[in-house]
Amino acid sequence: MCLGALSLGVSEFAAMGLLPQIAADTGVSMPKAGLTISAYALGVVLGAPLLALAFARCPRRLLLVGLALLIAFGNLASALAPNFLGAFAARLVAGLPHGAYLGTAAMVAASLAPPDRRASAVARVILGLSIANLIGVPLATWIGQLASWRAVFGIVALIALVTAALIRLCLPVIGAGPGIGVRREIRAMLRPQVLLALGTAAIGFGGMFAIYSYIVPTLTEVTGIAKTTVPILLAVFGLGMIAGNMAGGWLSDRGVMRAIGMMLALSVVAQFGFLFTPFSLPLVTVNIFLIGATSMGLGPALQTRLLDVAPDAQMLAASLNHSAFNLANALGAWLGGVVIAAGFGWTSTGAIGAVLTLAGSAVFAASLVLERSETAAATFEAC
């Protein structure tokens, strides 16, 4: 299941480094080629709830195999796209299974693990996204420059096919979840705690994306490093993501709410530091590692939180978490661009990142207050 997450991570993030090749090959401008990234994000946002609702009664192993095959199809179609419109449509299709696969895989991993190891099991699935940023994305960029962007998506399709085969061979048969009906699942998503958890993700993760979206020009223009050195620092970011992912799973097994609060607080500090550290290569290297670690450390905790607050609609809740993640991507990148365009400089993304994470912390604080009031009310009634 982690291998499937790796294929999704490469498919989503490598496209950003392949834009020059996609634009040249399809005969469009760079901004227009960037719409293929938006198409993938749109596919994630639409596909997560639609596929989760449509296949809620499907046996989990069969569903994961089907979603892995859809990942393969979308990326193979991307590799074979004859023109820009074909590439746009293929990237939309490639994004459709993203949230449903990761959400279902996280739910299955949690169900197979002991109760006190659920978050660590979820972290192992999400680890594929971190490995994609550490190894997959730099390697995909290199392959795209050496051979073709089409070769990259072809390789992703092959990885997805291997994932489907391994899931079929290695994962035990897992039945479908309880059939509560589409309306009840949607009502479950409207519970305050579910909405607050999704809001924490959609806003809180935006801070990381505000910085990451513009990290390359910041490093070349402010830190003054050569473009050939940038992949090394991106690998440092990936290392931070892996470390944070595993630490976040470990902390969440010992208290989900405490882990969320801790990672949000540390993220604010790390992101605000980016306002100053890019002027020094050693400092920005450490800072980039910490931004990756604190941001990805939030992932297992929020995923586990959603499984807890939506016990009767876990698949939909876990899938929507990745829709929220992509909304955070759009929000962070947009606001980061706004402050740069306003003349505040490349490092201003650190400030806007910290503000977004603080806003996510406020949403989380509301969830914490509501949970304590509900606990107090339940205790009072029991007395």
Account of the 3D structure:
It is found in: Cell membrane. Keywords: Cell membrane, Membrane, Transmembrane, Transmembrane helix. The chain crosses the membrane at residues 34-55, 62-82, 88-113, 125-145, 151-174, 194-216, 228-247, 283-302, 323-344, 350-370. The model has no long low-confidence stretch (mean pLDDT 84). The chain is mostly helical and 383 residues long. α1 (2-17) packs parallel to α7 and α7 (118-146) crosses α16 (298-309). It folds into 2 domains: 1-177, MFS general substrate transporter like domains (Growth Hormone, Chain: A, Up-down Bundle); 180-383, MFS general substrate transporter like domains (Growth Hormone, Chain: A), CATH 1.20.1250. 84% of the residues lie in helices and 0% in strands.
Indicate the structural class. Answer: mainly alpha
Tell me the domain tally.
2
The CATH architecture assignment of the largest domain turns out to be Up-down Bundle
- What is the approximate shape? globular
Question: What's the CATH C level of the largest domain?
Answer: Mainly Alpha
What is the strand content?
Answer: under 5%
Fourth CATH level, the homologous superfamily of the largest domain: MFS general substrate transporter like domains
Tally of DSSP β-strands: 0
Largest sheet: none
- State the CATH topology of the largest domain: Growth Hormone, Chain: A
Helix-strand string = HHHHHHHHHHHHHHHHHH
How far do the termini sit from each other?
46 Å
Mean pLDDT: 84
Give the low-confidence spans. none
Helix content range of the residues, please? over 70%
Radius of gyration (CA) equals 20 Å
Number of H- or I-type helical stretches: 18
Pfam family, one: MFS_1
Protein name: MFS transporter
Main location: membrane
Membrane topology: Multi-pass membrane protein
